[in-house]
Amino acid sequence: MTNNVTITNTGTGEVTLARSTSVNYQVGRLVSGWFTAILGEITIPAGESAQLHVRPKTGLAVGTHTETITFSGSNGATASIDAKFTVTAKPAPAGLTVVPVWGTQQLNISWAYNGDVGTGGGFHLERSTNRTSGWKEVYAGTAKSYSDTGLAALTTYYYRVRVNVVSGGTGLWSEYSSVGFSATNETLVDRGMVGPSQWLLYASGTLEIIGIGMPDYSSKSRPPWEEKHKEAIKKVVIEDVTRIGTETFWFYSALESVTILGKDVKTIGERAFRGCAALVNLTIGSGVTSIGNAAFMDCTFLRTVFCLATTPPTLGTGNFTTNGDFLFVPYGKYNTYADNTAWRAAFSSIMVATR
Question: Among 45, 111, 223, 336, which is least packed by CB within 10 angstroms?
Fold first, then answer.
């Protein structure tokens, strides 16, 4: 918005006027079609007029801005301009989404906006780690997407975006979009195939196995990740694999946690986790029906086992041989496990997990 204002010198002598400082507006002249702000004084000869242009400053807040701009100068001359401008909030960008890039600490953020931002306008994307404070601008531009890289692993980041729309030389801010958020992934260190399944090793020491099956192993045939990464593996997560092969994790000294997810894992092979002396947390999936002999033998520090199967799996000999182990079972299944001779003998205490 630019309004033309004419000031006429009705006196008999030349008048020099100096304008007051304006909080919300710019006063200037158009020179070859370009707005040029008046920084000092203007001189108007007797009987002549000066055409000025008044426009709001960029970035005014939403609302009505009323102001009287005054001029005073030689010979007691005065002039004033009553300026009024209403800022209506522009529509905020919509549909902000945050998507993690698998195996990296990168988040891809995108949003939608149907309007024209104008020359010099654009989007301003901000990030926070707690949603309520510490917002920092990470991107300014006209694109409707941004890739935020170099973030911390396994950390949740929050994002919001607003747009500055420039029209007639004036920039108008929209409200902020709704907040989008996502957590970053772990850094992928290595990957490969184990039989028909895929294995993924992350920088945290987590080995994830996803697929439909695994082969059996022995001292002469070892898993593909073992030669390079055995001592780095601290956590194992197995999903969808129907059977965990014999001696797969034989004497993994750094392994602390094992989680078997879903209903597809049916069998834990013999000696699959034997000798994992550092193992302290074990979750057995709801689909497991059979645990082979010595699958968890010599797991010296294993004290807590969560078994999610509603029917106690067949338990081979030599499992859970350390005194003082605690077994947590599904709600309503205490008697089912307590009445099972093998499970009752393997644990000093059986408790019901919280629903």
Answer: 45
R_g of the chain, CA atoms, integer Å: 36
> What does the pLDDT read at residue 97?
96
Considering 154, 183, 212, which residue would you say is the last residue of a domain?
183
pLDDT above 70 (res 111)? yes
What is the pLDDT, as a whole number, of residue 324? 58
Task: State the Cα–Cα distance between residues 125 and 110, nearest whole angstrom.
Answer: 10
**How far apart are the C-alpha atoms of 39 and 21, rounded to whole Å?**
10
Grade residue 260 by pLDDT with cuts at 50, 70 and 90.
Answer: very high
Question: Do 261 and 146 share a domain, yes or no?
Answer: no
**pLDDT at site 195:** 87
| Domain CATH number, residue 275 | 3.80.10.10
DSSP H stretches of helix in the chain: 226-229, 334-338, 341-346
pLDDT of residue 261 exceeding 80: yes
Express the helix, strand and coil content of the chain in percent, nearest 5 each. 5, 45, 50
DSSP helix/strand/coil, 147: strand
Among residues 84, 80, 64, 81, the alpha carbon closest in space to that of 72 is found at: 80
Query: Which of 54, 43, 47 minimizes the C-alpha distance to 8?
Result: 47
CATH number of the CATH domain containing 43: 2.60.40.1890
What is the band of 36 on the pLDDT scale with cuts at 50, 70, 90? low
User: Could you give the number of structural domains in the chain?
Assistant: 3
DSSP 301-332: T--EEEE--SSPPEE-TT-S-STT-EEEE-TT
Among 30, 96, 24, which residue's Cα sits nearest to residue 56? 24
How does pLDDT run across 130-179, given as a tens digit for each residue?
999 999 999 999 999 999 999 998 899 999 999 988 876 667 788 899 99
* 290 & 311 share domain: yes
**Residue with token string 């108007």:** 44
Q: Is 273 in contact with 279 (CB distance < 8 Å)? A: yes
